[in-house]
Amino acid sequence: MSEQRFGAGIWHFATYVDRYATDGYGEPRTILDAIELAGQVDDLSVVDLNWPFFGGDISDDDVSKALDKAGLGVIGITPEIYTRQFSKGSFTNPDPGVRRLAHEFVTRSCDVVRKFGADYVKLWPGQDGWDYPFQVDHGTLWQHSIEGVGQLAAENPDLTFVIEYKPREPRVHMSYSSVARTLLGIEKIGLPNVGILLDFGHALFGGESPADSAQLAIDHGRLFGMDVNDNLRGWDDDMIAGTVHPIELFEFFWTLHKNNWEGVWQLDQFPFREDSVAAANLAIDFLKRVQKGLAVLDVEGLKQAQAAHDAVAAQRIAQNALFGS
Amino acid sequence: MSEQRFGAGIWHFATYVDRYATDGYGEPRTILDAIELAGQVDDLSVVDLNWPFFGGDISDDDVSKALDKAGLGVIGITPEIYTRQFSKGSFTNPDPGVRRLAHEFVTRSCDVVRKFGADYVKLWPGQDGWDYPFQVDHGTLWQHSIEGVGQLAAENPDLTFVIEYKPREPRVHMSYSSVARTLLGIEKIGLPNVGILLDFGHALFGGESPADSAQLAIDHGRLFGMDVNDNLRGWDDDMIAGTVHPIELFEFFWTLHKNNWEGVWQLDQFPFREDSVAAANLAIDFLKRVQKGLAVLDVEGLKQAQAAHDAVAAQRIAQNALFGS
Amino acid sequence: MSEQRFGAGIWHFATYVDRYATDGYGEPRTILDAIELAGQVDDLSVVDLNWPFFGGDISDDDVSKALDKAGLGVIGITPEIYTRQFSKGSFTNPDPGVRRLAHEFVTRSCDVVRKFGADYVKLWPGQDGWDYPFQVDHGTLWQHSIEGVGQLAAENPDLTFVIEYKPREPRVHMSYSSVARTLLGIEKIGLPNVGILLDFGHALFGGESPADSAQLAIDHGRLFGMDVNDNLRGWDDDMIAGTVHPIELFEFFWTLHKNNWEGVWQLDQFPFREDSVAAANLAIDFLKRVQKGLAVLDVEGLKQAQAAHDAVAAQRIAQNALFGS
Amino acid sequence: MSEQRFGAGIWHFATYVDRYATDGYGEPRTILDAIELAGQVDDLSVVDLNWPFFGGDISDDDVSKALDKAGLGVIGITPEIYTRQFSKGSFTNPDPGVRRLAHEFVTRSCDVVRKFGADYVKLWPGQDGWDYPFQVDHGTLWQHSIEGVGQLAAENPDLTFVIEYKPREPRVHMSYSSVARTLLGIEKIGLPNVGILLDFGHALFGGESPADSAQLAIDHGRLFGMDVNDNLRGWDDDMIAGTVHPIELFEFFWTLHKNNWEGVWQLDQFPFREDSVAAANLAIDFLKRVQKGLAVLDVEGLKQAQAAHDAVAAQRIAQNALFGS
């Protein structure tokens, strides 16, 4: 078995609120609590940290110590550009003052990336978009989406920025909505330090085949990160990876593998009602099934089947590798 | 113009949190604040009140006074059987202690209904369902869904209970998921004081034609309430009524009208980023367009078109009535 | 391994047309050709036959001989109540003459059921429904849906009728659209010889959990038949069973198993571009994985997990059974 | 009222088959029959013609005469690269021989474009894509998609090629699936004579906001054509324009209008069970409502509302313009 590293968004180990359970699905946790829980997962190496650190007045040092104790590194920092002040958008907010605020806010998070030696600033502008027909001027909105990210990338050439696209939620339409739309924006930005963080579930939710999305991002030289979970294709359910779509998940990792993409395999799950550690362990155990499946996959047979677009032969090979023959 | 009464869920005038904007889409409001805002809507007669009253230690008297001042009556009480303590279900919770708690909780809300002279207890068991394949024994879960409502209805024969079904959210699958499923459950309960509160948007989201859902519930003698909003058919967006699907909304009201269903036309909207009062006014203004449309609809022509399933003729008649000829 | 019998709709072995490839996805085949192909599948016992027999002037005897030669029995007869003459509906056609024609047509197919000793008449009224808002009077349409089936069941008490529901296609809304709607109709009919044929993919497409749908139909004493396939949840793709949703398929069969439901496991697949025999073999091989999984499933552990609604534990048990531990 | 020209795909006036009504939804019609019907629509100027001409051995001259008699011009030619021979793909077919055939076939259609003086060759590679996980090598498939169109555009610099994207159908995943994906491909091709034909319903079906899709294509200088229809967002229903989503249709045309996009307003409808001429008239009458709405739209008010992302104000302005104030 290879030395594949596994990671997770630290929010995996938080508790959540939604518009109904406004008192939360559990007692609030600080990011330090969450890091401690993450440390209990059997095989986790790195985490992606929301910033500012949730749960009170918590310093970088506090976090560093907690990470050390838990044996975890930092892969990315996710500035929270989707809270109340940005509820009408961060980069695309109608108010230029709030757009500046978003810029300054992410700029400050860049220093956190540097301090923790993380791989990237993760941008998930979930409030950037629109809800209603006629609500926005679409050309302007997209222009702001591009400029907002572009300015940050230009000003911080030492850092890498990844955009995590999603079709929608919390906005009814999100601006960076699909792999192709995001690549189109990145091409327009034209800088080397902007790429995609591809969320398997967001691709499924958007009607994409995640394996195809990965290949497209790779072919554009822009697949800078990824994470996995599962859903029912109609919403970003952030369920445990492997529980609904094991075969497409396998195809996704096969695509990474054959392109020699060697990054961290991350989880982006929201176990609202589940034990966080158990949910992470189940997912990672499934990812280890995937690893084993890749090791025994009949690569030559698969290539022949794919050359003929022979779905039956290709599926048989994939099933035999993943489920045993 | 008829004396149609309009209503709204009081949450229309609250602010909201979700899993991203955990600090909320605005300053928290008490139910008294919300009632005051509701009173500013141009043409609103009644509200449906969440219970317990949100925003602190607020008495029935406080609420009564606020309602009087705002000129509003109470149509229903919605016990919050979807907060943290019920996050794994209310009537279907795996823990019998929590199921009892849900029962006692709703029982207490019955007294609130009596005190305010409301029309019904509204049951929206949004946490009753399941998320994952293999998670539950489906037969037991459905049995609990039926028993939970049935016991309440049997114990409170002086009151009316309405079930508001929805396909999903916050659960990935909700137990009372569709109009037909709910009617099937109600038939099994077999009591006269249980009916449906039909949410136009939930029907759309579930792939139903809301007009058909309304007719089915009426034909079973179980349409006890309704509310409207709009969405993109893939989620319960709770957008402003009339902004996306005006024609199906018109058909829905036509169905109520031709069956002489004479209840309140209610709003169930979540204006996350909009002014609550303006959002309610826009919706009610559209509902008045609907009223005018019903007044000029070529009923004979429509019946002939429908007798022939003639979509073109029927649509032309409907468009002319709603949009002008 | 048990003596589970496998079946298939004979159309699995036909070729298809659609609105684009109007010249078909392959050379036309007669039902005799299709039977011969079905006979080449490794482990197939019975077929469901479209009636009239497609491909020309083919007698019952011709079909009997072909079946004998292929070693196949007949589980059901599917009268084609969805061709041109019924394109505006069979039981719900606006023209009473066509409704009578549908009745006579199905009545004639009853004799074919008797002649072949099949288990049931399968009713799939795919053209019964509506496309546009305002097109139909929904109460009348549903009444016709119920009366059409009810009359047939009353007149043929020696036979069993199964209704195969589907949300839509070719109609934008199909009248028998969901498991609950169909059960509601069957209860209204009130005869013992009408039940459901549950198509796994139709349930998925309708946003149902197929295991839950099966349990509901069983609890109403109405699960008279089933078939499987797969899809992406947004359409009735009729793909090869097991290729997209293996875990939910496993849960579906677990539900049948624990209820001692002992019917034929049938395929309803449309291999537009695949070799029919290979597609059937791949599906049945997956179903044999399911059988093996059921044999090793930790039933006690699962029951405990389900009693607690413990998704993680339940999934781990299910994955270990299906994929190996 | 302006001199807006209206058009339609000639298939609007054909009859259809699908996988159920294999005998068709009506008597077969030749393209000459269809042209005659198109000529009966009240206000139609141009048509898009499938090629080869359907219905038998029909010459260019036959078609010319029919068009003259009907008073119709030709806007585009649609080579049928989605029939049996291309059922596993045209530009992306696994067989290089079939890919060459597709190339030659479209090349021949170029001469038809020249002969009729049409505006463009319309490419709708509906069979180019995949159905199953693991079926294809995604990088190769996309490469073939780009090369196929690029070669044609390079070889025929005097002509314009438009790609009509769609998420799926008949393929489970179509290669040119979204506006952004198609623009990404077109940028890669890098030739001036390739653009997008934007189908309103395909955009809706793909989860796009059609107005946003139009703006994006315009901003890339690639909106070369458009057509409209309607659907329920979950499938390419090709229903009559304006019957389900009038407001988003209005926003779509507003976007064209404010960008001074001055092409033909075309219909791409499939009236399976409706009178073709009546269906076209109803749609065009709705488009004339749109024209009137654009004429009275409070443009300044809308711009202010959009500058603030004020959904309520913007919607009120739009509704007043379209439905009357």
Q: Care to give the gist of this entry?
A:
The structure is a homotetramer. Chain A is about 45% helix and about 15% strand. With about 325 residues, the first copy, chain A, is of the alpha/beta class.
CATH topology group of chain A? TIM Barrel
State the CATH class of chain A: Alpha Beta
Major sheet attributes of chain A: 8 strands, parallel, barrel
Order of helices and strands of chain A: EHEHEHEEHEEHEHHEHEHHH
Count interface residues per chain for the largest interface.
Answer: A-D, 53 and 53 residues
Average per-residue pLDDT of chain A, rounded, comes to 97
Helical residue percent of chain A?
40-55%
CATH superfamily of chain A: Divalent-metal-dependent TIM barrel enzymes
The side-by-side strand order for the widest beta sheet of chain A comes to: 1-2-3-4-6-8-9-10
Total strands of chain A: 10
Oligomer: homotetramer
Can you tell me the number of structural domains of chain A? 1
Beta-strand percentage of chain A?
5-15%
Please tell me how large the radius of gyration of chain A is: 20 Å
Based on secondary structure, the structural category of chain A is alpha/beta
SS summary, helix count of chain A: 11
Unreliable runs of chain A: none
Q: Judging by the overall fold, what is the CATH architecture of chain A?
A: Alpha-Beta Barrel
Distance between the termini of chain A: 19 Å
Shape of chain A: globular
Account of the 3D structure:
Chains A, B, C, D: Its EC number is 5.3.1.5. Chains A, B, C, D: GO terms for molecular function: xylose isomerase activity. Chains A, B, C, D: Its main location: cytoplasm. The structure is a homotetramer of 325-residue chains. The first copy, chain A, is globular. Chain A has helices at 31-39, 60-70, 96-116, 138-155, 179-189, 200-205, 210-219, 246-258, 276-296, 299-307, 311-323; strands at 6-9, 46-51, 73-79, 120-123, 129-130, 161-163, 173-174, 194-199, 223-228, 265-267. Chain A contains 11 helices and 10 strands. Helix content of chain A is 44%, strand content 13%. In chain A, helix 8 links the parallel strand 9 (223-228) and strand 10. Chain A is α/β, with parallel strands linked by helices. In chain A, the strands form 2 sheets. Chain A has an 8-stranded parallel barrel, surrounded by 6 helices. In chain A, strands 5-7 form a two-stranded antiparallel sheet. Chain A has one domain (6-297): Divalent-metal-dependent TIM barrel enzymes (TIM Barrel). Chain A starts with 5 loop residues before the first strand and ends with a helix. The mean pLDDT of chain A is 97. In chain A, helix 9 (276-296) crosses helix 11. The interface between A and D is large, with 53 and 53 residues.
